[in-house]
Amino acid sequence: YPAVALWHRYRLDNDLTFARRYWPMVKSAIDFVLTLQHPEGDISWSQEAFGTGADDAVLAGNASIFKSLDCGLKLADLLGEPQPAWRLAKDRLSCAIRNAPHRFDRLQDRSDFAMDWYYPALAGVLSPGASFARLEARAPRFAVLGRGCRCVASEPWVTVAESCELALALLSLGARAAACALLDAQLNHRDGDGAFWMGWQFAEQIVWPRERPTWTQAAAILAFDARLGASAASDVLISR
After folding, report:
1. 119 and 35: one domain?
2. Is 25 inside any structural domain?
3. Sorting pLDDT into bands at 50, 70 and 90, what band is 56?
4. Residue 141 belongs to domain spanning
5. CA-to-CA distance for 175 and 172, rounded, in angstroms?
6. Does any domain span residue 239?
7. SS (H, E, C) 53-96
8. Residue 197 pLDDT more than 90?
9. 23 assigned to some structural domain
């Protein structure tokens, strides 16, 4: 995942020295992750489980790895160190996510989690048509009109981070009106200083939990930046 952060940082300030400084870390990290890729293309959730009865591939995690490979390849080209093996690995991973759903979440059904629903669209793995079809098919389970995106389909709980990430996926597909409506709804989930609460339990009409995690703020910053085009890196998570 640091590949995405480093590419985002480079797009913000064009600091080639900074990118070159952290490139060895990104390269080592991606090389390690790819040692856990199966011939079918999916990537195991842990080194300890790889090749054992506990082996599994998490769909949301693999979609994130796809985006990481995309940014890693951009960094590689920028720094003059092409990584053809990464490109092949990315293609195999894409093929698995698109065509081999049985390779993912084999030991645990994670379809109740919003991240498993929208991450393949958010990461740009699927075609626009397939992304729209996936989002539309499961929207009734997760989308709550005027509130946001449920974190878990079976719970009356919308979360700001998931809502903002879903908005990013919608922006990447050109569904700007839907994305903006989703982001506008998140403005209701802030404290007196403007920080975002983690979520809203709409059955009981309460903020829950009363926490303001850093990842929630980060998701909001990235999503509103993508909406407004405020920074030079505003398209990093919505470009295909």
Report:
1. no
2. yes
3. very high
4. 114-228
5. 8
6. no
7. CCCCCCHHHHHHHHHHHHHHHHHHHHCCCCCHHHHHHHHHHHHH
8. yes
9. yes
